[in-house]
Amino acid sequence: MVIKKTRTSKKTRTSFGVRYGFRLRKKYAAVKEKTKSNVCIVCGHNKVKRVSLGIWLCKKCGAKFAGKAYTTQ
Known about the structure:
Layout: H1 22-36, E1 48-52, E2 55-58, E3 64-66
């Protein structure tokens, strides 16, 4: 008895499930990965939160600075 394995596609881990299409989910996952690795330019701490488009706030030192839309550099 021969069992054929089916081809599986690469899975993106998002909160959308099967909705909105693969390309959109893939782009969303890439943006989310970029925002996780942001570093404060003042103290070097890794916990930086985006306040609004291009405005970032460090949770450790409280510094507010401008950067790109999804990254601090």
